[in-house]
Write a structure and sequence with these properties.
Blueprint lengths: L10 H13 L4 H13 L7 H11 L4 H10 L12
Helix pairs in contact: 1-2
C-alpha cells in the first residue's frame, strides 16, 4: 500500500480531523483514509451502462430499436491510435 505525507496542514484542520475521528471512533489516520476513500469512490458515482440504459428508456428506445441499431453497427475492429 502507498503512503502519503501531508505537509503544511494547518493546525485547525488537524484539530478538526482529530475531533471528527474521535466522533467516528477512529484514529486520525483511519479517518483521513475514510475521507479519501469516500471522495475518490463516491457511492453515487455514474455507472455508464446504467446511464445508457436509462437514457434509452427515457427517449423511448425499445428492444427492437436496439436490435436494429446493432445490425447497422460497424463490427470491424478499431484501428489503434498512433502517437508520433
Amino acid at each position: 500500500m502507498a503512503s502519503v505525507t501531508i505537509r503544511n496542514l494547518p493546525d485547525d484542520t488537524h484539530r478538526a480531523l482529530k475531533i471528527r475521528a474521535a466522533t467516528n471512533g477512529r484514529s486520525t489516520e483511519a479517518e483521513i483514509r475514510a475521507i479519501l476513500q469516500a471522495v475518490t469512490h463516491p457511492q453515487e458515482r455514474l455507472r455508464l451502462g446504467t446511464a445508457l440504459y436509462e437514457l434509452g428508456r427515457r427517449v423511448g428506445l425499445s428492444d427492437d430499436d436496439v436490435t436494429a441499431l446493432e445490425a447497422l453497427r460497424d463490427k470491424r475492429p478499431a484501428e489503434p491510435v498512433r502517437i508520433e
